[in-house]
Amino acid sequence: MHWLTGIMRPGLDTTNMREKTMKSIRLFLALTMIAGSAPMVAHADGTLQINVAPFTSEVDIKEKIRKQLEGGGMEWGIAGNRLVVTTVNKQYVAPAINQLTRFGTNVTQSLPAGEYTISCVAMVYDGGMSVAKVLSKGAFFNENVMTFRIEEGQTTTLDIRPVIRKTGGLIKIFMPEYLTTATLNGEKSAEVSLNSRSEKSIGWDDYNGDLKFKK
Questions:
Q1: Own/partner long-range contacts of 11-19 (Cβ < 8 Å, ≥24 apart)
Q2: What is the per-residue pLDDT across 157-166, written as a single tens digit (0 to 9) for each?
Q3: Are residues 34 and 49 both part of a single domain?
Q4: Which DSSP letter does residue 44 get?
Q5: Of these four, 70, 77, 165, 185, which has the most CB atoms within 10 Å of its CB?
Q6: Distance (Å, whole) CA 82 – CA 85
């Protein structure tokens, strides 16, 4: 009968809806069980400790200037698997330079396990009457000058000796050279200069990589 059919049809629709709902719930439970049983991937962390020693100098420095230098430090940042050190004003460096470790202090940072390199944006003053000229004549890039490893649950130590070298020229710029070693599990690397100019250094004007800030 029409009226009965009219009453029962919603009941039939409800049954179908219940079946569909139960099917959806069973599917959801199956998916959550699969997700729950799947292994979770975690990034294992280790620790990087950076020790920046008090600076030493090969040249005589006036007491007033010495006190100013003692308040300085090494500026650096982590960009992916690369530690970037700079002695050039960080506004001209592309990676974020958000750390300043003062001479005679240390700092620790948790990092994902893996292999890391150190690059440096550096400068030896060679004259120039404008910022562009000073950078063009004296700034350079030392890419991947050193490597170190971070291992899960272990501490890797970078020991940095800032040394002010005796240089020629009429204008004295007291910029320390960063002599660096890496130690992990008692094994110490050879000492490497991060910011000295060498035949592998790339001049400011010749460099087109991702360490230079581009307007």
A1: none
A2: 999 999 998 7
A3: no
A4: -
A5: 77
A6: 10
